[in-house]
Specification:
Layout: E1 2-5, E2 8-11, E3 20-23, E4 26-32, H1 36-47, E5 55-62, H2 71-80, E6 85-91, E7 102-103, H3 108-114, E8 125-130, H4 133-146, E9 154-156
Parallel strand pairs: 4-5, 4-8, 5-6, 6-7, 8-9
Antiparallel strand pairs: 1-2, 2-3
Length: 157
């Protein structure tokens, strides 16, 4: 996948299928663990251009609070660009106290409330997934399809 700017990106095809160029106004990203790396690259590419009006939402799943990679960097970006990016964390193991985010595996409710709450136009949303294969296969893909999105609405790294 290559970000071309202003919400436009090119999906690189597998085998002999042609590349596909698409455009979206909102990127809804779900990352698990080290799957954050391509998401952070995409986030930085969008935020690099102040004229790019693409908005971003990230749902980032980890085993524990201590496992959250790049948390400080993500929170700094949210503080700097609050109108452009929203980040929500979920962890399997709840800490003793003070955790203001979600606990548990990524689910439909989390996707609806943290990735789609301001974005209801299916044509203007593109999902990006990167993480453990079971998370993508048993949660991400079935949920976005249940919500009425098509294969064209998502990209898996």
């Amino acid at each position: 996948m290559t970000y071309l700017g202003y919400g436009k990106f090119r999906k690189h095809a597998y085998l002999r299928a042609p590349d596909e160029t698409r455009q979206a106004k909102h990127f809804a990203m779900i990352a698990g663990g080290t799957g954050i790396t391509p998401m952070l690259q995409l986030i930085k590419a969008v935020l690099r251009n102040p004229k790019d009006e693409t908005t971003l939402s990230l749902l980032f799943a980890n085993k524990s609070e201590n496992d959250i990679l790049l948390r400080d960097e993500l929170e700094t970006l949210v503080a700097k660009y609050p109108e452009k990016i929203n980040v929500h964390f979920t962890i399997e193991e709840a800490p003793a106290s003070g955790w203001k985010y979600s606990t548990g595996y990524v689910n439909k409710e989390m996707i609806e409330s943290h990735l789609l709450k301001k974005n209801t136009n299916k044509e203007s949303i593109q999902f990006f997934f990167c993480g453990p294969p079971p998370m993508i296969k048993f949660c991400c893909l079935p949920t976005v399809k249940e919500l009425g999105y098509t294969d064209a609405n998502y990209y898996t790294f």
